[in-house]
Amino acid sequence: MSNRKKRGAASTLMPQTRPYGTEDVKPTLKTLAELTGLAVTTVSRALADAPQIALETRQRVRRVAEEIGYFPDRAAQRLRTGRTNVISLVLDPHEEILGYATSMINGLTEALRGTPYHLVITPHFSDTPPLDPVRYIMRNRMADGILFTRTEPSDERVKLLLERGFPFICHGRTELATQHPYVDFDNYAFAYEAARKLISAGARKLCIILPPDRFTFAHHMRHGFMTAVREAGVPFEIAGDVTLDSKSEEIRLAMFRLLSETSPPDGFICGGEVSALATMAAAYDKGLHLGSDIHLVAKQTSGLFDQIRPRVETIYEDLAAAGATMGRLLLRRIAEQPQVSELQVLHSI
């Protein structure tokens, strides 16, 4: 009898639920309200980063939410607000720029940190129309905003998104008459300054490896390059057999053939680290020395060339900064209706 009473008494002291964050118990807004001593509506608005809620309160609610493993019910949230709290980045896999995706994503996640938004990567492959992933995201309402790269002069994605009024920021500009949001790097200035550096170093004939002609930044690079060589009156050559999208081995072989000509270039502009390494390999195979027989300027987007000897002249493009700027601008575009000019950023060299 006494043993049964002890067992019964002990059972009333056992917790009726498991700790928050276990697979059996999912914290809710009500849970957060109880733990913070706030109303459910206040907690909800704090998590939505509503400016009417004091910053200290918003931070406290988010801290408690993280501690107990609270995640909003996305289905219910979407039904209630019409928003997914998702940003979609459409990425083209290519080896032109080392660490392109990683740097861009790092910047974007930093911009989204502390907000209700999550980043989702949507791949786009070169053998499918660029519009396909954008249409899919819009049709299925998979995100509240879209980010994409490698714009074209008359980009169909930009046209469609402007027509539908769907929030977006693109990495790169177009030649469309209608203004649109973008973040871009000044590739005209890159090519112009790279050519001037080569001429100052004593290069007598210049060569540039351009992106595929369908991309807007190919036109910007060509324009900057041509302006510089015409001002200086030096001979030049534009690589015709390969582009920045070509395989590294294809670029190496093309540069080897070029260096084997009767009057080869001795100054090279490479818009990416892969093309620069391939050009350096071709020069080595020809028995030429970097810095004396040939000169090279590369666009640097990683720390790779900091470790290359002899040192290579580089111009840096900060892709993480580009990603962070794109993220901040897109959040602003979703939250309000700013002037388009306030959503256009051109990063200088």
TrEMBL record:
SUPFAM superfamilies: lambda repressor-like DNA-binding domains, Periplasmic binding protein-like I
CDD domains per UniProt: HTH_LacI (cd01392), PBP1_RafR-like (cd20009)
Cited Pfam families: LacI (PF00356), Peripla_BP_1 (PF00532)
Keyword match Transcription regulation: yes
PROSITE patterns linked: HTH_LACI_2 (PS50932)
Alphabetized UniProt keyword annotations: DNA-binding, Transcription, Transcription regulation
Domain HTH lacI-type: 27-81
Gene3D superfamilies named in the record: 3.40.50.2300, lambda repressor-like DNA-binding domains (1.10.260.40)
Region (Disordered): 1-23
Keyword Glycoprotein assigned: no
GO molecular function terms attached to this record: DNA-binding transcription factor activity; transcription cis-regulatory region binding
PANTHER family, alphabetized: HTH-TYPE TRANSCRIPTIONAL REGULATOR GALS, LACI-RELATED TRANSCRIPTIONAL REPRESSOR
Protein name: LacI family transcriptional regulator
Source organism of this protein record: Pseudorhizobium flavum
